[in-house]
Write a structure and sequence with these properties.
The protein has three helices and eight strands, in the order ααβββββββαβ. It is an alpha+beta fold.
């Protein structure tokens, strides 16, 4: 019986020693190369900005359609019973941040850019305000969008 108990203790000791070595290795790799532990899928900013700009997005609140165009421009078509309104402007993407500035000819929020973070999940686009003094743009952008 004594030898069986001593073998069990030896196995337990080896198991814990192996576990400690493995944990030490993982911690060392994490400290030296943290990018090796980046398991997020689809968070590459080029992939996200490409996904953002190649699609037409429809607003959840009023059916407005947002299209990103060439040379960092966008158009938003806002439907109306009488006639639809088009608002155009420019955007700048930096990682998961985006800023919108409406055209100077527009009488809507054309002074300062609105800054947002954005996230695309499945067929949805969400903007969160970083800073924007334009209440109507904030309302429109943060209501949520879906892919057409």
């Amino acid at each position: 019986m004594a030898t069986k108990k001593s073998k069990n203790n030896t196995y337990k000791f080896l198991f814990f020693l192996t576990l400690i070595i493995l944990i030490s290795f993982v911690i060392t790799v994490y400290i030296k190369c943290p990018e090796a532990f980046n398991f997020s899928k689809g968070n590459d900013s080029k992939t996200i900005s490409s996904e953002l700009t190649k699609n037409t997005w429809v607003s959840n609140i009023d059916g407005a359609m947002l299209n990103f165009k060439a040379e960092n421009t966008f158009e938003i078509d806002i439907p109306s019973v009488e006639s639809s309104a088009k608002i155009a402007g420019k955007y700048i993407i930096e990682e998961d941040n985006i800023s919108f500035t409406f055209d100077p000819e527009s009488d809507v929020c054309n002074k300062e850019p609105g800054k947002y973070t954005y996230k695309i999940t499945a067929e949805k686009l969400e903007f969160k305000v970083v800073s924007d003094k334009c209440e109507s743009r904030k309302y429109q952008w943060t209501a949520g969008w879906f892919k057409l």
